[in-house]
Amino acid sequence: MTVMDSVAPPAPPRTAAARLRWALADGWTITHRDLAHRARRPGQVVVELLFPVMIVLMFAYLFGGGMAIPGGGDYREFLMPGMFAMTMVFGVEATFTAVSADAAKGVTDRFRSMPMAPSAVVTGRCAADMLNSALGLAVMIACGLAVGWRWHHGLGPALAAVGLLLLLRFALLWTGVYLGLAIRNPEAVMAVQILVWPLGFLSNTFASPATMPGWLGAVVEWNPMSATVAATRELFGNPGWGGGSWAAQQAPLLALAWPLLLIAVFFPLSVRRYRTLDR
């Protein structure tokens, strides 16, 4: 037996406070690792930030002239809350790819062999993605201001709207983490896109649910993204589609309930899946 073999790993902390500090410290280590990887790929970061800006410019200046908003209102102010939400939703593919690539390459197994907090890898990954998401949302808000979008109900409601957008992103990140750990194949990102793109486009971002067939309009109104878009339009004071259904009238409530439900389901699933990767 070598000296290295005789060194036992440190025992996990026993008190709840010590375990929390342990988890936070290990989670920050993983967060720092993921951010360092992104810093080494500035070109990819720039493309990720500018792609949604290009979509905004296309819709605002190419299609905006042909769009009519119920009750009047500026199309660009109508558009931007939906684009903010789509930016939060479409980042799930990047989360899935990063998590599944680590799992496929054995990086995740290496982490699991270390004396780390069991939740550190998944929470660290989500923390890094949330920081990137906050940066992306800031770029989109700057883009919106540049094309004429404004909020009209004061700073407090505007910050609440930003909080709802980041909450949606946080909830969907756990979905991406779980799928990445479950599939463990970065090339399967197309399967994730098949799930994400309907979530983004079967929403009230571009079209009113009232103009759709009854069953499809109901699906759109109960879409978690639609709830966030409707709630943020209301908080920003931007024009929206309105609607008399319960889902349309209770959009702020659903904008909180849907993400919390997704977190309650996929956070424990992600941690459990991480613990049982080799089974």
Overall outline: elongated
Largest sheet: none
* End-to-end CA span: 29 Å
Number of β-strand runs? 0
Strand content: under 5%
Low-confidence segments, given as residue ranges, are 1-8
Number of distinct helices: 13
Series of secondary-structure elements, N-terminal to C-terminal:
HHHHHHHHHHHHH
Mean pLDDT: 82
Helix content: over 70%
Radius of gyration: 21 Å
- Protein structure class: mainly alpha
The total tally of domains equals 1
Secondary structure blueprint with pairings:
Layout lengths: L2 H4 L9 H24 L2 H22 L11 H15 L2 H14 L1 H6 L7 H28 L7 H29 L5 H13 L12 H8 L2 H13 L9 H4 L1 H25 L4
Helix pairs in contact: 2-7, 3-4, 3-7, 4-7, 4-8, 4-11, 5-8, 5-9, 7-8, 8-11, 8-13, 11-13
